[in-house]
Amino acid sequence: MFYQNKNIIVIVTGSIAAFKAAVLVRYLIEQGAQVRVSLTAAGAKFVGPLTFSTLTKYPVLQDIFDQNDGQVLHVKWARWADYIFVVPATADFLAKAANGLADDAASSTLLASSARKIAAPAMNDQMWENQATKRNVKQLKKDGWLIIEPVVGFLAEGYDAKGRLPEPEDIILQAQVRLLAEKGSLKGKKILITAGGTREALDPVRYLTNRSSGKMGYNLAQAAAEAGAEVTIISPKSKKTAYPLKQIEAVSALEMFDSVKKELKNNDIFISAAAISDFRPEKFSSQKIKKNGAAGLTIDLVQNPDILAQAGREKQNRFIAGFAAETEKIIDHAKAKLVSKKADMIIANDVSRSDAGFSVDTNQVTIISKKTVKKLPLMSKLAAARKIIDEIAKELD
Question: How far is CA 147 from the centre of its chain?
């Protein structure tokens, strides 16, 4: 895990959203981080130090004059930290940080530390849009801070607007993705990914589909973003992500085919991870098919276009990868697919297994390219996605 064995200071400032900082601290600890909390005087008005000392098993830093074994505590902490999170970050604290002010324990710790700094602002929407706040945020970004921008949501003032603190897990994940991306193996590359199972309509109510959940495709999107790539994903339904991602909805195989054809020319890498229906009904019934008139019903099917094969024919200098969801002769079928689709890589998996493939959070894949065959053990889909992205990056070297 990214935060495993990392030393992290969480600075909590005076916002109604301060209660979320306790959840963030707990999540960081669960991911193996060593966490300490510095609480501003205003922050302590919302959440007391006992909450954070109970979670971290360490005293909370509040007083700039606190010492430990004769050492000034905020300086000692500043040298100890790998990362400093300011969650929530008020407009006042952002102004202090941008201008190098150090009039309390929290701001002095910041100024004394070379640790990487991440701020998640939370405030009234008008304060967020104020030119002074914009200048301060711009300066912090220039100084190397990561700014996790507030989201649109219900504010303390009683209306929806941009200023709400993102959820703690989103803050942690967005910071992780962006920090990894800075030195990622695919930095500067553009990658197109398909995900999920397409749906082929029979009538306004029913459709033909498969068991694909889209989890593998979206995990590939995260892994690619962590590697520094600019990611576009095409799937039947968009999903909320904690990091920037261009999402295009394409429900049927024909819609996905058209979307891939349009987007392919703008990307360096294509991964066909969607479970695309091989067939669709020849005719669509504009009215619901009634069961009392459906005895002996026959549905004529026609073949859908082969998206991976079409991408292979148009590959030029692009890297093309696809999945082979098989139930027998896994490697043999995948190797044949590598050739027939003119692909550079095929990721094969046995979808008959209960612990891999469709609708579960784990997968066991074999990565097959012209250079190598690499069988991976059973692991989470995110871990498998990271391995696949690593192998693509190696192939591109």
Answer: 16
